[in-house]
Amino acid sequence: MFEKIDHIGIAVRDLDRALRFYRDQLGLELKEIEEVDEQKVKIAMVPVSESKLELLESTDPAGPVGKFIAKKGEGFHHISFRVSGLEDKLKRLKEQGVELIDHEPRYGAGGAKVAFLHPRSTGGILIELCEH
Ligand code: CO
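Above: the input record for the complex with cobalt (II) ion. Below: its predicted structure, written as tokens.
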């Protein structure tokens, strides 16, 4: 079941510079900064009411966000839906011919289980499913 939009991922070149906008100028609150080594990113979580912005700074040009920024520049990266029953949902999507990036959930920011769907199957949007 889809519960809500958990967060929107935004690729940034420089987290400190991004926070000067989102925190200092927009006045949003920075909840935490976390490094997710597996994804080669440093992540700042910025809650916006019931949802969040996930600001992603690459820690390695060969990582997924590093490659994304090299190709497309900074900006919108992914939308994350909070779901229950993530494994089942992935299995069902696969049966329906949806191309998955992650066939099994892996660990993401905040200890959530996450899995990405390929933009080729979604009309060009990188979609993350997460379960807390
Ligand atoms: Co995310």
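Notes for the reader.
The mean pLDDT is 96.
The domain at 2-131 is CATH 3.10.180.10 (2,3-Dihydroxybiphenyl 1,2-Dioxygenase; domain 1).
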